[in-house]
Amino acid sequence: MASFVVEVEDLVKTFGTFVAVDSIHFQVERGEIFGFLGPNGAGKSTTIRMLCGLLLPTSGRGKVAGFDIMMEPEKIKHAIGYMSQKFSLYEDLTVIENLRFFGGIYGLSGPLQRRRESEVLKMIDLQELQDRITRTLDVGSKQRLALGCAILHEPSILFLDEPTSGVDPISRRNFWSLIQQMGEKGVTTFVTTHYMDEAEYCGRLALIYQGRIIALGTPSELKSKTLSQGVLEVECDPLVPALDLLKRESWVSESAVFGDGLHVIGKESVDLEREVNTLFQKHGILLKRMGWIRPSLEDVFVSLIEKEEKQ
């Protein structure tokens, strides 16, 4: 369909006997911020490299910006913007020289290139640092420069491969503000991340685990479908022995440490508060506080992964 700018069907990538991506299927609409979540080694970067024309799939089908990922990878490279985890910048060049270099790669020149350099510098807030050597920039500024280089040629689709890895929280928030601004202008963003708080910024999410997509939907849909009964937040002492006790109980679906407490999910039709209280009294665990909370994406992530591992 014309509204889909990324279409993937039964996509597979193997390295010898290792299956990195296992028959995945999804579509991304024009102007969407689409998040691709998963732990390290789940297949996120392998998928994004195939979609960007950097890695040939083993089998399956896919299109990006209307181009076939098997037959037309070079056309895809010129139609998209791509930002890798390691910020593909030239450290010995200045900020403006990096922009000028990437503009040349994308075929920009003359007044058009100068206009785009000026617009991008303003957007990424590096006008005052345009003559600074790139290696002297802080990580957040390098991140914004890498984004600027990726969007210099005004691509309609932007691929970001864990772009905030190693970046401080304030820089991460500012970076996502830029992504949302571009989304409002119709730019499609496909982003891989393992930060659950960042996933909340996405319109839809796909969760990949061991090369397979195990969940797909909006953040709200994933929370309601996965953990409709809610999450019981428990503060107790000692923490780890309490967790060990809960994991052995048949009426517990999932339990995990979250911050200074535990998040506990019970089987359906179980009076979870009563069961936890009884268990802790029996084993001398001090119950400090207990209450129901709305599930977070991290709760969803842990729940889905634990179900996969049990299977």
Q: How much β-strand is present in the residues?
A: 25-35%
Overall 3D form? elongated
Count of individual helical segments: 11
- The total beta strand count reads 14
Tell me the Rg in angstroms.
23 Å
Query: Remind me, CATH topology of the largest domain?
Result: Rossmann fold
CATH architecture tag of the largest domain:
3-Layer(aba) Sandwich
Return residue spans where pLDDT drops below 50 for at least 5 consecutive residues.
none
Write out the strand line-up for the largest beta sheet, numbering strands in chain order: 6-7-8-3-9-10
Report the biggest beta sheet as strand number plus sense, adding barrel if it closes.
6 strands, mixed
Q: Mean pLDDT, nearest integer?
A: 91
Helix content: 25-40%
Report the span from N to C terminus: 35 Å
What do we call the CATH homologous superfamily of the largest domain? Answer: P-loop containing nucleotide triphosphate hydrolases
Q: How many domains, in number, for the residues?
A: 2
The CATH class label of the largest domain is: Alpha Beta
